[in-house]
Design goal:
Layout lengths: L3 E2 L19 H12 L4 H15 L3 H4 L8 H7 L4 H14 L4 E8 L7 E8 L8 E3 L30 E2 L2 E2 L5 H9 L3 H7 L5
Parallel strand pairs: 1-6
Antiparallel strand pairs: 2-3, 2-5, 3-4
Helix pairs in contact: 1-4, 1-5, 2-5, 4-5
């Protein structure tokens, strides 16, 4: 699938905003720690992906009721759903000068309640296209990996069930995603207000 930049200029995918707050001291601290062990942009990006995937539990897996939406809060509390974890990874990538954005899949969920799942797209130096990665977090039946050549996402879209890979790469979280995160008092409430399509 060819990914399409929602914003024409690449600088939009390096910018900080209220959610992707990569200038925040907490984000900078984590980025500096990851950069210390990285020889190049690829090594850093892989380390940032692994850090978010493995050290920030998905709140549906951990049972944590808190809802986070700023990258700095996700990294400070080590908690978030897929949208929040994607925001955190995007911030860590941008903190190191790697263009990154947010992208999404529409999944069937339990059949009655489709869900929109958050991913990250990144563009490393020397690569002429965006690559998607999924920092959701692995568990039995889910084995997402960092790969620029062949996607290794948590889920593969099943078109016969009406699932969709959205091609847009967003520079900032879409309003329906951000509003759901910002307005939910806890994860139970969030589950009722998550978008079902973009």
């Amino acid at each position: 699938m060819q990914l399409i930049q929602q914003s024409p200029g690449i600088t939009a995918y390096l910018a900080a905003d209220e959610a992707i707050d990569h200038e925040h001291p907490r984000v900078r601290e984590v980025a500096a720690d990851l950069a210390h062990e990285a020889d190049d942009a690829y090594t850093y990006a892989r380390a940032a992906f692994t850090y978010v995937r493995d050290t920030v539990p998905h709140s549906a897996d951990s049972g944590d009721p808190r809802v986070t939406w700023r990258a700095s809060d996700v990294l400070a509390t080590r908690n978030g759903i897929c949208y929040a974890k994607s925001i955190a990874l995007t911030a860590l990538l941008r903190a190191h000068g790697i263009p990154a954005g947010l992208c999404y899949q529409r999944l069937a969920g339990d059949g009655a309640n489709p869900v929109v799942h958050g991913l990250v797209a990144l563009r490393l130096p020397g690569h002429d296209r965006w690559a998607r990665v999924d920092p959701r977090g692995n568990k039995p039946g889910i084995d997402a990996r960092f790969s620029l050549e062949e996607e290794r996402l948590a889920w593969t879209v099943r078109e016969h069930l009406g699932e969709v890979d959205y091609p847009a790469v967003y520079a900032a979280p879409p309003p329906e995603v951000l509003n759901a995160l910002r307005n939910a008092r806890d994860r139970t409430e969030l589950r009722q207000t998550l978008p079902t399509h973009l």
